[in-house]
Amino acid sequence: MYESLIRLLAAIGRASAKLPFPITGLTAALLAGLMLARPKKLWKPLLALALSLAVLWLPLYANKPYAVSRTAADETISTFIESLAHALEPAEALSHEEILQTAQTLSGGGVQLKYMRFPELMRALRMAGFYSPLTGEALLSEAEPEWFLPFVACHELAHANGLANEGQANLRAYALCMAADSPAFRNSARLYAMRIAFSMLDPTAAQATRSQLPEAVQRFLSGAEPRSARRAGSLLSVIPGRYEDLIYGLLFNSSNPEA
């Protein structure tokens, strides 16, 4: 079943890739116009949208190639953060176009990554990227930090290749980034994992861990909050496994994507 849905999504993606602009934005604009002009007629397209998503996307949440444990001690996570910090490599910044091309090569091609025409909207929703199964488009926000974009690009392409679950898509993105020849991609995976792992610590462990890291890494982690102080980070932050499954999977998964 997974294979059939993935092939269908790939076909939709190849069709949408022929257009230089994101169809998703146009669809959203049409729905917004209908909402303003004829709100009583909106239920039919919304119902069609919901049914389409249910058929195309929901079954793929059961596609979980990575096994994930749900426990880890603060000491284990702290050691993991330190190993990531000391593995960072010197890297030159990549252009936005280089990020797209490298990510698409790593994922095997097919779906075309695009930048959202209005990144301000995504930033307002606190979303760095978005995959639309209805249009087969993987969209990124150019407003995100350069260190973050390679990981986000691989994450959205993981969705395009049949991993609907957010935690599973993060694990696949980590594997893709670490397989890249580009140090910028490998650092992006390490920095993202480091940031999430740090937010899983309690405040005492977080402070002790940060004090052991290089000064540049301490500055990087200064914007991350330990567990007790975390707030909802985005529109999708309520989805289970979106963040922590990446760390648990890297620490305990027998088919470790880092290996």
Mean pLDDT: 82
Q: Using the alpha-carbon principal axes, give the shape.
A: globular
Q: Please, what is the oligomeric state?
A: single chain
Major sheet characteristics: 3 strands, mixed
First-to-last CA distance: 28 Å
Question: What sequence of helices (H) and strands (E) makes up the elements?
Answer: HHHHHEHEEHHHHHH
Contiguous uncertain segments of 5+ residues: 228-240
Strand order, sheet with most strands: 1-3-2
Tell me the total number of β-strands. 3
Radius of gyration: 19 Å
SS content category: mainly alpha
- Helical run tally: 12
Concise overview:
The protein is mainly alpha-helical and 259 residues long. It is 55% helix and 4% strand. It contains twelve helices and three strands; from the N terminus they run αααααβαββαααααα.
What would you note in describing this structure?
The structure is a single chain. Helix content is 55%, strand content 4%. The protein has 259 residues and is mostly helical. The longest helix is centred in the last third of the chain and has 17 residues, at 183-199. Mean pLDDT is 82; it is low at 228-240.
Summary tags:
3 strands; mainly alpha; single chain; 55% helix; 259 residues
